[in-house]
Specification:
There is one protein chain. The chain is an all-alpha fold. The chain has one domain. Helix content is 73%, strand content 0%. It contains 18 helices and no strands. Helix 2 packs across helix 3 and helix 12 packs across helix 14.
Length: 369
């Protein structure tokens, strides 16, 4: 890594930390945050999670921080650390994909993106979910495209941590398996080490697999179905949240021009994927698969269990921003600068609103976290 790149990366990480610390100790709890803290405090240590459709890791973290002074602040600081770590992994992923310039640009987008910032202050498992997804996706990329098997040693542990953190990590692991299988059909790859990764992962998650399957069976019998909740906004809404984060009604009432970031971000991500496809089809197929297949699997699963919510897809954000960065990088310098300024200003407006209203009781409604 060149000295200039190191300095820029350090600056980005410091900005990431700075924008995730305001009001960290004083903003009011968001959606389910207070519930998580109360439930974890009211149950024996290490057992609270089994009252809900959630595995034990995050509740274990919550119960552990409650053994110390200022548990809410400590929990949120841990989420801030996970958010900053996500920025760092985004840089490494982008650098491996297309060089340090792309890595820096993608890391900067994650740094200032409102969804990433807000969930980095939120005492829920989603930013940790995002970090584990991104880390596993990057390590799998290195194995498939750089023949780096060292990351495979960590991959079972990361998969298992993701599953213990949130059961829906099974969807991105399934997307990884599908992508590896698809690449295997198109070109020879050393697939046996990855099979070993999956076998070890299976052994690691076996202790909670019965709990997972029992909850799936119970929820699948619910009268609520995906078909009953479908609206025209169901599918694009998660991507809208990636681009804007604030609820549609909030944006329409207070800063309507910011809504334009949604179609612009989609165009940039699509352009980035297309340009990557023209340069390296296999890399483009990999990124498309690990991103889009999760949406597909979520929609299919929602025929039986209602899980197609933006909140359960927030963890895909860094890969979306990586594609956006690739699209930005391919623009003419003046257009790239203008678009980047537009996103900086638009996201600053949203974050300023968030930092203001998060001190009020109904802020989670304005941002629909």
């Amino acid at each position: 890594m060149r000295p200039t790149t190191k300095q820029l990366l350090l600056g980005i990480l410091l900005i990431a930390l700075a924008v995730r610390l305001p009001n960290i100790a004083t903003h009011l709890p968001g959606t389910d945050e207070a519930l998580t803290l109360n439930v974890a405090a009211g149950q024996p240590w290490g057992t609270a999670s089994f009252e809900f459709f959630h595995p034990p890791l995050f509740f274990f973290i919550v119960q552990t921080v409650q053994l110390f002074p200022e548990p809410v602040l400590l929990l949120r600081l841990l989420m801030v650390a996970a958010g900053v770590a996500t920025v760092l992994v985004t840089f490494f992923f982008g650098r491996d994909l297309a060089g340090s310039r792309l890595g820096l640009l993608a890391a900067f987008l994650v740094t200032i993106n409102p969804m990433s910032v807000i969930y980095s202050q939120h005492g829920r498992p989603y930013i940790l979910f995002s970090l584990l997804y991104l880390l596993s996706t990057w390590l799998l990329y290195r194995f498939l495209f750089k023949q780096d098997r060292r990351g495979l040693l960590a991959l079972p542990g990361i998969y298992a941590l993701a599953f213990y953190n949130h059961y829906l990590s099974a969807l991105f692991i399934a997307a990884h398996v599908a992508v590896v299988a698809g690449l295997r059909l198109r070109r020879p790859i050393a697939w046996k080490p990855y099979v070993a990764v999956l076998l070890v992962t299976g052994l690691l998650v076996a202790p909670i697999l019965l709990h997972f399957l029992t909850n799936v069976a119970d929820l699948s019998q619910s009268p609520q179905t995906w078909m009953g909740s479908l609206t025209p906004l169901t599918f694009p809404y998660p991507v809208y949240k990636y681009a804007v984060m604030a609820d549609i009604s909030t944006v329409a009432a207070h800063y309507p021009p910011v809504a334009a970031l949604f179609p612009v971000s989609v165009a940039l991500a699509a352009l980035g994927l297309w340009r990557l496809y023209r340069e390296d089809r296999k890399k483009a197929c990999y990124l498309a698969g690990v991103f889009l297949l999760v949406f597909v699997f979520s929609a299919i699963a929602s025929l039986y269990i209602l899980i197609y919510f933006f909140r359960y897809l927030t963890y895909l954000l860094p890969v979306y921003l990586l594609l956006m960065a690739f699209g930005l990088e391919k623009q003419r310098p003046w257009l790239r600068a203008a678009l980047l300024v537009a996103f900086i200003v638009g996201w600053a407006v949203v974050l300023q609103d968030y930092f203001t209203v998060s001190l009020l009781g109904d802020w989670a409604i304005d941002f629909a976290v």
